[in-house]
């Protein structure tokens, strides 16, 4: 159990046992980056022949949970386009930063090159309507956060979460960088803008620990100031364009 390559060995056995026809496989996530813990799952992308079916499965293998990203070779471009449209790049980053487990015919190597090209191009820019809608949403969350009494902690904490997420969405879009969810949100945020990202995260922590919304509101307003400031009066959302 002290073998540092245990997660990779486990993942390779998983692929060999369940997908002997696989064209290649990559181990991603924390296990591939040296951040594995005893309860970390295995994020494994598996390339399949076109006779198979693309899908996502969650299983348990050798006592460890495993999330499997299964896709045929023909479906790779569609998966990458979908990943890019979400601006998160989950599968893209598995191929970009993951650890190849098997690649007998070079399919994984070529897929990794495709992923890196998409990542280098960045996520799609927001449309003018998307910029306005996000600015307006962040302004509303920020205003409500400041106006909410610490006595209403459930509401305050919920507003802090939405303020952080919307500010992260805008800040990463401003820098044309990728965003994330869960533990990847702070990682992507700090990578996109270390100073403003840290201010947002510290502000969120201040709400959680001290019921103090001021630092997070100030950090959110800094983000809005990059984009023309808070948006309140005059905002219009058309039902159809």
Q: Please count the helical segments.
A: 10
How many structural domains are formed by the residues? 2
Spatial separation of the terminal alpha carbons: 59 Å
Identify the CATH class of the largest domain. Answer: Alpha Beta
Strand order of the largest sheet: 3-4-2-1-5
Q: Which structural class should the secondary elements be placed in?
A: alpha+beta
Any idea what the radius of gyration is?
21 Å
Mean pLDDT level: 94
CATH superfamily of the largest domain: Beta Polymerase, domain 2
Task: Give the second-level CATH assignment, the architecture of the largest domain.
Answer: 2-Layer Sandwich
Strand portion: 5-15%
- What would you call the shape? elongated
Helix and strand sequence? HEHEEEHHEHHHHHH
Determine the CATH topology of the largest domain: Beta Polymerase, domain 2
Task: Give the % helix.
Answer: 40-55%
Number of strands: 5
**Unreliable parts:** none
Largest sheet: 5 strands, mixed
């Amino acid at each position: 159990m002290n073998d540092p390559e245990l997660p990779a060995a486990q993942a390779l056995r998983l692929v060999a046992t369940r997908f002997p026809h696989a064209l290649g496989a990559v181990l991603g996530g924390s296990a591939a980056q040296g951040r594995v813990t005893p309860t970390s799952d295995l994020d494994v992308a598996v390339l399949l022949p076109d006779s198979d079916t693309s899908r996502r499965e969650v299983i348990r293998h050798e006592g460890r949970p495993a999330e499997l990203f299964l896709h045929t070779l023909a479906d790779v471009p569609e998966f990458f386009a979908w990943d890019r449209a979400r601006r998160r790049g989950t599968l893209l980053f598995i191929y970009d930063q993951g650890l190849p487990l098997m690649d007998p015919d070079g399919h994984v190597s070529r897929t990794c090159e495709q992923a890196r090209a998409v990542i280098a191009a960045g996520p799609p820019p927001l449309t003018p309507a998307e910029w306005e809608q996000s600015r307006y949403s962040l302004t509303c969350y920020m205003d409500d956060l400041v106006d909410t009494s610490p006595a209403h902690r459930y509401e305050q904490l919920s507003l802090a979460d939405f303020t952080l997420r919307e500010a992260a969405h805008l800040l990463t879009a401003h820098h044309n960088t990728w965003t994330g969810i869960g533990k990847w949100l702070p990682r992507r945020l700090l990578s996109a803008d270390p100073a403003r990202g840290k201010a947002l995260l510290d502000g969120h922590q201040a709400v959680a620990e001290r019921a103090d919304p001021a630092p997070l509101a100030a950090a959110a307003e800094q983000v809005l100031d990059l984009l023309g400031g808070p948006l309140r009066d005059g905002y219009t959302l058309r039902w159809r364009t």
